[in-house]
Specification:
With 193 residues, the protein is an all-alpha fold. It is built from 8 helices and no strands. The N terminus is likely disordered.
């Protein structure tokens, strides 16, 4: 009887150890595959960025390839440390192509999901600018611009964006000519002094 119990205990231990080894091997294989996939997407981004940099003039096809590479990366790896940077770059390309709603979506994703991003204040101001300048009359874009300007002034009062936000907030909803006239008037007042 003791031999039977000992045999069962040893058999269970061997079986348990074997299962543990296959589980850790499977986890290691899965991690290796994920890293290889991540590296493939990073290589695609590098190639797209290099092609854009080597182009002597703007090429919409190259811009689209870069956007596709960025999109694929942050869709597959939304929590990755590089996701926010690629979202920021994608927003820049989207703005350059005139797709301001898509640029706002990229920037809002940063604001919602990547609050620790080193360029977070830049993303805030870029989003405020996109809403203010291009989407003011789309889905309450002007209101969103004001919210973002207020947030910048409150959370980053010593940043260079705080003063700009204070000034630009006054002109949300007004034609650009009002801002230009105010700038010219202030310049003339300075000349008189």
């Amino acid at each position: 009887m003791k031999k039977t119990l000992l045999s069962i205990a040893l058999g269970s231990l061997v079986l348990f150890t074997a299962c543990g080894d296959s589980s850790s091997t499977a986890n290691a294989d899965s991690l290796k595959a994920a890293n290889e996939t991540r590296q493939k997407y990073l290589d695609d981004i590098t190639a797209a960025e290099k092609a854009m940099a080597n182009s002597k003039e703007y090429d919409s096809k190259l811009a689209l390839e870069a956007l596709r590479a960025y999109n694929t990366f942050f869709t597959k790896f939304p929590k990755d440390t590089l996701a926010a940077e690629y979202l920021f770059k994608a927003s820049d390309i989207a703005q350059g192509t005139g797709n301001y709603q898509q640029a706002a979506i990229y920037l809002e994703t940063i604001l919602d999901q990547h609050t620790g991003y080193s360029k977070y204040p830049d993303a805030l101001f870029a989003a405020a600018h996109v809403y203010d300048e291009y989407l003011e009359n789309v889905n309450n874009g002007g209101n969103r611009a004001i919210e973002l300007y207020d947030f910048i002034m409150e959370k980053y009062p010593s940043s260079p964006y705080a003063e700009q936000s204070r000034i630009l907030k006054q002109y949300v909803g007004k034609p650009d000519s009002v801002l230009i006239n105010d700038i010219m008037r202030k310049a003339q007042e300075q000349e008189k002094k």
